[in-house]
Each structure stands twice: as C-alpha cells, then as structure tokens.
C-alpha cells in the first residue's frame, strides 16, 4: 500500500454548465465557465507552481508564484485569480516566468528557517516542493537565520525564534515557519466559518495569529483542523506527525462519531495511525472535519480499553479474565438456561448505532432466528424513533429527504430542536457558508445556540418554552394558511386534497394563532409571523431538526407537523428543500434500516407480513415469530416484573444514555445475565455478567449509513486488538447458542442484506468501491442511489396531512419544581463520552455544567462555578453552575457526556405517545446551592468502582 494522493487543483470547481475552450501550452482545453486558468491547466495535466492557492478555498492571488503569460495581454497575471475565456492562448512556462518565479521563491526562502532535515514537514512541505519546481538553487539575499519572527524583535533572549504555541493538544503552531499565505485564515473563514484566525502585524512582522495574539487553546479556534490541513509548511503541524513521522500508506474510511458520516484518509505507519485527514472526495464532508473525527481517535489504544473476555456469576464479584470460548459458552449457557426457566421470550438484545450495518444486521438476525423472538431494539428508540414513525406516515419513508449538498441550493433554513454547530459541525460549516451567501435562517430553540450567534449570520430566533414544539409549528401553519401562502398547485398535485382541507381548517382555527399560543410557547407573535412568511415565500425552504424535536411526549406529532409545513409550502422533492433529521450517531440511520426495531425486519417491513417474513425464513432456514417483541422500556419493566432475564447489549451504554437512571439500574440488577459487548467497562457493564471486548471502526470492514441515507465503506486499517471484529464475535455467540451464521467477510453479509431489502438491492462492496458511496434507495430504478427523495411524487403515493393537536406534557412545573431542564450536546464531546473522554478533548469540556439564567441564579443565591443540587421528581444530582443568558428565565440546560454527573438520573419515564422515545428535553426541576456530589452520586461511584474490579489471572504452577 502507499499514500493515496489527492490532486489539489488550486481553485474550487466551477458549477457553470456553459463550457469554454482555450489553449494552454499548445493544447486545446474545454472547461466550465468561471474555471481559473490554474485549474484548467491542472485538469489538462499541467501543474503551475503555487503556494497560496488550494482548491478548498477561493483564489487569493498573494504568492505571485502561479504567474502565466497570455497572448495579447500585457504582464503576467496570476493563474489562480484569472478566469478562462474563449480563445485564450496561455503559456505556463517561459524564460520570463522562470525568472520571476525564482525571484519570488528567493524572497520566501530568505525569510524562512532552513532546518528541512529536522522539520516535521520534511517530505510533506509545499514550500520545499515549489523550490524544486521553479529550479531554485541559490539565494542571492543574505540569510543569517533572522526572519520575520526573529526572537530579538519580540523580547525573547534564549531562543532564536519566537516560542512555539503548544497550547492545543493536537497541533503545534510555529510562527517562524509562517509564509503569510493566508491559507489557514481563509480555511477558518470559508470552510469552517469560525473566523478565529487573522494575520497580525505588518511587513516582516506579519504572521498568522489566533484572535488578538491569543493562544490557540485560549482563542475561538474549534480545532477542526482546517488550518492544519491548509498550511503548506510546518507552521501548523499535528503533534502526532512530529512524534511519529510522516505516514507511508493510507486507507479511506468513514468516521465513527456523528451522523454526518465524514470520509477520512487514515494515514498510517505500519499499523499505527499517524493522522486522520478528511477525504476531499467524501460526499458528506467534502474534505472538511471537526475536532472529534480529525483528532479524537486515540481511544482506540487507550489503556482502559478491555481486550480480553471476562465473566462473573454475580455483579458483586470481581471480573475474571477467560478465553473467548469460555466466555461465549458461559453466556450461551446462561441464556439457554433463562429461556428454559422463563420461556423463549425472556431474553433479547440491543443493537448498536456505532457498529456497522453488517454487525447490526447480524445482531437482529441472532435475536430473531437464534433466540427465537423479536425482542430487539436500538438506541434510535431513545433518539429518532419518532422520525421513523412521523415521516413514514406522511411521506412513506423513514428517513430524511435530501443529501447534504442540497443546502447549497437553499434560500431559507429552518432549524428546530438542533444545534448543528455542536452536534453536526461539518454540516454546520456548509450551512453557515450558505447563510453567509445570503440564505435566511430561522432557529426555533429554547436556547440561544451557536447557530444563532454565528459570525456574519443573522438569525431569526424563536425561543420557545420546552415542550411546546407542536404549538409553535401549528401556529406557523396557521399564518401560512390564513395569509394565503400555501403552494396550492403542489398540494393538489402531490397530496391528498381532502386531507389537506381538513388540516387547513384545523390550523386556521383562531386558537392556533401566534397570538393565542404565545401564552404557552413564550414566542413573540410578531416574530413568529415573520418566520412563517419567510419560510413560505423566501424561495427554497429546508427544515433541519434534531433531538429537540423527537425527545418529547409529542415527538412523533412534531415530526408530522414539520412534514405538514413542508408539504403545504411545496418544499419537498427537489434540491434545496426538504425535511432533514440530523442523526446523532454515526450509524443510527443504518441501525434502523437493518431491522433493529421489534416490529420491523430490515427495510422497515412489518414482522407480521407473511410474504416478507417468508423471504427471511427461506434465507435463514428458520421459522420466525410473527409477533413484535419488546421495546427497550418494555424490557426494563418486564425485568423488574421478573419475566425478562437476559440481555445482550452491543455497543450501547444504556445505563448512562437512557432516561430515569434509577429505573434502569433496577431493571439491570433484576436480570440473571447481562452481556455487554463494548470497548470499555462502561456504566452498563457495572451490572453485567459477561463482557465481550469490542472493536473500533479502525479495526473492521463494513458500512455506515449517515443522516442523508449515504452508505459508505468502513475499512480496516489495523488488526483488532481484541482479536476479532464485532461481526465475528456475534457469529461466535450464535454458534455457542447453536445457531450457525456462516460468513467469511462483511461483504457477504451485505450481499444478503441486498438480497432481502429492496432499498439496498443494488448495494455491494464493488458498487461502493466504484462510486465511493450511494444513498438508498439503490436498486434497478436508481442504480447509483437517490440523493433527493420524493421527486415527482411521494413514496407512499399522495402526501398525507395529519392533524397535530397540541397536548401539553404531563411533566409540569410547580412550586416544588419551578424550572424546566432541557439537555443537549457540546462540540468536543460525543454522546455518553466513552470515546471522547478518553482523548485530549477533555481539555475543552472536563465536566458537565448547568446553564442557568442570571435571574434564576440570583433568586437562588447561586454564583458562577458554584456546586448546585439539580433535583426532579425522579432523582437528583449535583454539578457546577454556569450563569448565562443563552437560556431564558425558567429554563436550565446541561449536557450528558460525563457519568459522574449522571444527568439522566433526573429525567423521567414520560415518553412519545407513538414510539416510547423518552422525553429528555422537558423535566421539571429545582436548583439549590450544594456542597458537592449527592449521596446518590457517591453511592453510585462506590458501586461502579467495586464492580470494575478485575481479579488477577490465575497462574498455574509448573509441574
């Protein structure tokens, strides 16, 4: 293997459909209008020397190295900033150009340290490459080691150069190497959208600077890595490259964090990862990344990772390390014994939204065909199950309608219950770029999120009270209907007209007006009316939503209300519009696709359907139960009742992530055998009897499906440290239970999925390798996938309008619990933090904090940084307070990334009426000063420490 080389064309690709023909170095070339001469030359195979140009950002024209000659024009224009024109005759090489380029390079080299042999960028330095490209052999200007950041001019006496900035845990800033090309500054602005970098100083004192000469860690930098990727020298360098050296081969794979699904080159030395570089051909991320995918992969080799199987009879006992055969036989015997004692339905499993499609498919297959029941569920139950229900009812499919590229054609963006800047940062960067180009933004969120405060973006913010999503959306619909803003032609053609009329009459009722609903929603009626008009009349309107929509008692109703809005305004079925759920985990879409719900086989087909079930029975050679199994909440209730006694959990930490922690503890404690299949001894493992070591995304082959239905390859870059990929472990567990699954490679599993699942019929590893990725449906009708759904008509036939009556949650505030708690995520951490907490990302978020408004804090005598007691009807915990006006009076907010906080001990059992998705986002609480951790936290910590004891291996005496 070797390093996969990506071509840098110098300037972005033109999207014009008008073609232009010109001549470059005697060759006729035809390219789209708006293409730069530099890119046209590169596409023809001629590389013009460059330093400030890169195709990730717009042309800048500052380095003067890419000069060309154009017949009939005076001077030597920069090829990066000069667009092609019909009939141009361009020369990229001449005596004059050679002389000019050498002169430019002399100036750069005279002001640059020549420590190439010991420089971390040696072998990967564009300045070095360009010196060779222009034939520079001598430098006429005196070089004595003093460049523009020489120490004497900055009060440094001990070193020759300004000190390096080592504050960021992942990369180093060496100002002595900066050539002031501004590529990092432009990447921060144009690609990331943070605007954290600038060029400070003048003349020879110029250099890149984070903010007002702050450190990188202390600045607004979000460590996305775009600046490091853009830097042509060693000014910004990954610390892993400095430590290990330059990589020697690379493999393209897919990130295992959020639902954006960024493609990366894993750049390696042997089996050691040197760095993860975003893959420019990745259609989800287009060469960008965030701090998690780019840098937070060190958990793979973390010292706390468990690599050997372990068992124990009781959760009070220490763990015993055993062989794989012993662990699997122990687990199988336990499950068989439970089924013999309590019945076939007394065991079940939970699939993982972090594992591959193939692994998830095998787990549900093992449960249905091996365990003999349908007691399978997934973490999507507690996050996006209302998406599946709501969109299938209205549109006919259980997934988002667009690809991420669609945002480039959007005119109005409505974000509700999501904060892409924190939870889906790479998509957020693409979105913010479109907003800076003029698209309008409407944010419906109880909190003033980072999207509202983005630089150069003006947002209309509707700060609703938590739990009133349906009322706000119906009020928006009221304005659209009563003001005649409905796209009647679309509705008549694509939707059921009589159902629309019923819906229109419903939302037109005066009780749904912005003025009437304001008393419950807290949203200014004037602002709400303005938002409705903008969405309905502002051009292509796209809705993006997240867990702030689904994790409510009316989660499914809210998804339906969103679909109603999109249909009423004709914003479905073309680029730039649509209804787009932002999935939380890397493969939560895939885990749903693969049949992880107790009532559905892969492809969202009901288990009761005889024809569908018979296809699986024939392929699997087993009779399947036609009755839906237990959902996760039902499993917990049945365990406490004594009828559900065994659980296989792959890659999920249900104790930390599911609501009402005390209830989960009671359920797990009641079970006779809990099998945890994971990387670390997580919180759920505190109550487990079998621990099967898992594998990371770097150690396996497979596929993930992201939030835009994009199926992408995951490729193994190292041998599994535990010995087996997760799909192999599930096969071995099945075999131990007497159910054989014979596969030698995940590609064979995908072939079976394709044979049984109509939306995956055209998917194969060969097709994915050929196209890079595909979006389902991928079949005979769409052999290369379906970027945009519902073009010309809905999958279900006619779009279905459904009435969305607002019903207030049973979780109410009162004298004892007067505040409303809502929860969310932060950029640097991921979900329950099992991976990111074991990386340097803890520098940015070492603990969960409670955001509270200054008014509420003052009433309770709480100061910034104080310990506070957070109590609800379900339980209590303690954490530090952060006083901020980002939340409204009466609302508090926290994250759930740290197990020592256990935020879910606060959340209740209330859930969505259709899917049992928990109501994480609305919990009545009280806040009071505290001296530190609660008694429950102390007891929990003590139990966790006790449970994680691992007995010393037994050493057999020599004979």
UniProtKB/TrEMBL annotation:
Q: Which keywords has UniProt assigned to this entry?
A: 2Fe-2S, 4Fe-4S, Iron, Iron-sulfur, Metal-binding, Oxidoreductase, Repeat
Residue span, 4Fe-4S Mo/W bis-MGD-type domain: 248-304
The 2Fe-2S ferredoxin-type domain covers which part of the protein?
Answer: 18-96
SMART domains under this entry? Molybdop_Fe4S4 (SM00926), NADH-G_4Fe-4S_3 (SM00929)
What residue stretches are annotated with the 4Fe-4S ferredoxin-type domain? 169-200, 212-241
Which is an annotated GO molecular function term of this record? formate dehydrogenase (NAD+) activity
Entry-linked CDD domains: fer2, MopB_CT_Fdh-Nap-like, MopB_Formate-Dh-H
Q: Where is the 4Fe-4S His(Cys)3-ligated-type domain?
A: 96-135
| UniProt-listed InterPro entries | 2Fe-2S_ferredoxin-like_sf, 2Fe-2S_ferredoxin-type, 4Fe4S_Fe-S-bd, 4Fe4S_Fe_S_CS, Asp_de-COase-like_dom_sf, Formate_Dh-H_N, Formate_DH_asu, MoPterin_dinucl-bd_dom
| Superkingdom of source | Bacteria
E.C. number = 1.17.1.9
Task: Enumerate the NCBIfam families for this protein.
Answer: Fdh-alpha
Supply the PANTHER family for this chain.
Answer: FORMATE DEHYDROGENASE H (PTHR43105:SF14), RESPIRATORY NITRATE REDUCTASE (PTHR43105)
What protein family is recorded? Belongs to the complex I 75 kDa subunit family.
* Protein's name in the database: Formate dehydrogenase subunit alpha
Source organism per UniProt: Bradyrhizobium brasilense
């Amino acid at each position: 293997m070797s390093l996969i080389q990506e071509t840098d064309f110098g300037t972005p690709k033109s999207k014009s459909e008008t073609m232009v023909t010109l001549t470059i170095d005697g060759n006729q070339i035809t390219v789209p209008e708006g293409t730069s001469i530099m890119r046209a030359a590169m596409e023809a195979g001629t590389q013009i020397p460059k330093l400030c140009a890169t195709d990730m950002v717009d042309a800048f024209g500052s380095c003067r190295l890419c000069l060309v000659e154009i017949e009939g024009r005076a001077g030597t224009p920069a090829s990066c900033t000069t667009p092609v024109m019909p009939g141009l005759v361009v020369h990229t090489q001449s005596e004059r150009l050679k002389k000019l380029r050498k002169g430019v390079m002399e100036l750069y080299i005279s002001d640059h340290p020549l420590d190439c042999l010991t420089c971390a960028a040696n072998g990967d330095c564009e300045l070095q490459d360009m010196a060779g490209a222009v034939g520079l052999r001598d430098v006429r200007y005196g070089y004595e080691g003093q460049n523009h950041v020489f120490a004497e001019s900055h009060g440094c006496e001990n070193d020759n150069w300004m000190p390096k900035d080592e504050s960021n845990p992942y990369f180093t800033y060496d100002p002595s190497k900066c050539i002031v090309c501004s590529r990092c500054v432009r990447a921060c602005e144009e690609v990331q959208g943070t605007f954290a970098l600038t060029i400070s100083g003048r003349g020879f004192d110029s250099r890149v600077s984070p903010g007002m000469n702050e450190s990188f860690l202390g600045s607004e930098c979000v460590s996305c890595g775009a600046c490091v990727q853009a830097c042509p020298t060693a000014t910004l360098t990954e610390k892993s490259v400095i430590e290990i050296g330059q990589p020697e081969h690379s493999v393209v794979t897919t990130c295992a964090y959020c639902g954006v699904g960024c493609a990366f080159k894993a750049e390696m030395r042997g089996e050691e990862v040197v760095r993860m570089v975003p893959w420019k051909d990745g259609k989800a991320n287009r060469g960008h990344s965030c701090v998690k995918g780019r840098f937070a992969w060190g958990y793979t080799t973390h010292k706390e990772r468990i690599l050997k199987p372990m068992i124990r009879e009781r959760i009070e006992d220490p763990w015993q390390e055993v062989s794989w055969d012993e662990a699997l036989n122990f687990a199988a015997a336990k499950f068989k014994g439970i089924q013999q004692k309590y019945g076939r339905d007394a065991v079940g499993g939970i699939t993982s939204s972090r594992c591959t499609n193939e692994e998830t498919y095998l787990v549900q297959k093992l449960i249905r065909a091996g365990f003999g029941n349908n007691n399978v569920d997934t973490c999507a139950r507690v996050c996006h199950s209302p998406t599946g229900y709501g969109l299938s009812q209205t549109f006919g499919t259980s997934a988002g309608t667009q690809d991420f590229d669609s945002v480039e054609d959007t005119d109005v963006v409505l974000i509700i219950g999501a904060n892409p800047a924190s939870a889906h940062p790479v998509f957020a960067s693409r979105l913010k770029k479109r907003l800076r180009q003029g698209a309008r933004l409407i944010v419906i969120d109880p909190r003033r999120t980072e999207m509202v405060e983005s630089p150069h973006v003006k947002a209309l913010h509707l700060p609703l009270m938590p739990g009133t999503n349906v009322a706000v959306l119906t009020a928006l619909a009221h304005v659209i209907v009563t003001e005649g803003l409905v796209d009647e032609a679309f509705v008549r053609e694509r939707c059921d007209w009589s159902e629309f009329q019923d819906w229109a009459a419903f939302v037109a009722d005066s009780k749904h007006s912005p003025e009437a609903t304001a008393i419950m929603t807290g949203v200014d009626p004037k602002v709400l009316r303005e938002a409705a008009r903008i969405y309905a009349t502002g051009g292509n309107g796209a809705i993006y939503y997240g867990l702030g929509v689904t994790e409510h008692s009316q989660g499914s109703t809210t998804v339906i209300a969103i679909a109603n809005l999109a249909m009423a305004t004709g914003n479905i079925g073309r680029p730039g519009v649509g209804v787009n759920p932002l999935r939380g985990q890397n493969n939560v879409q895939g885990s749903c696709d693969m049949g992880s719900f107790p009532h559905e086989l892969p492809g969202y087909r009901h288990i009761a359907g005889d024809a569908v079930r018979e296809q699986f029975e024939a392929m699997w050679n087993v009779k399947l139960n036609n009755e839906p199994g237990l959902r996760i909440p039902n499993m917990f209730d049945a365990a406490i009742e004594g009828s559900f006694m065994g659980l296989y959990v792959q890659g999920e930490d249900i104790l930390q992530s599911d609501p009402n922690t005390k209830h989960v503890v009671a359920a797990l404690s009641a079970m006779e055998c809990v099998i945890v299949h994971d990387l670390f001894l997580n919180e759920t493992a505190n109550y487990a009897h079998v621990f099967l070591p898992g594998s990371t995304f770097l150690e396996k082959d497979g596929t993930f499906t992201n939030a835009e239905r994009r199926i992408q390859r995951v490729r193994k870059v190292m041998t599994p440290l535990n010995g087996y990929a997760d799909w192999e472990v599930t096969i071995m567990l099945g075999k131990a239970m007497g159910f054989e699954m014979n596969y030698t490679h995940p590609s064979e599993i995908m072939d079976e999925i394709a044979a049984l699942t109509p939306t995956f019929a055209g998917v194969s590893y060969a097709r994915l390798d050929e196209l890079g990725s595909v979006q389902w449906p991928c079949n005979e009708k769409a052999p290369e996938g379906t970027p945009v759904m519902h073009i010309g008509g809905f999958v279900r036939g006619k779009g279905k309008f459904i009435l969305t009556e607002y019903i207030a949650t049973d979780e109410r505030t009162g004298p004892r619990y007067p505040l409303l708690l809502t929860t969310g995520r932060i950029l640097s951490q991921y979900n329950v933090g099992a991976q990111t907490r074991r990386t340097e990302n803890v520098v940015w978020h070492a603990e969960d904090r409670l955001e509270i408004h200054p008014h509420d804090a003052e009433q309770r005598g709480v100061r910034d940084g104080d310990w506070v007691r957070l109590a609800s009807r379900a339980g209590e915990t303690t954490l530090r307070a952060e006083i901020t006006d980002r939340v409204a009076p009466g609302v508090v907010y926290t994250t759930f990334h740290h197990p020592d906080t256990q935020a879910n001990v606060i959340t209740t059992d209330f859930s969505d009426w259709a899917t049992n998705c928990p109501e994480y986002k609305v919990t009545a609480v009280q806040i009071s000063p505290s001296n530190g951790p609660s008694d429950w936290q102390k007891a929990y910590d003590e139990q966790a420490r006790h449970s994680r004891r691992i007995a010393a291996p037994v050493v057999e005496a020599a004979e």
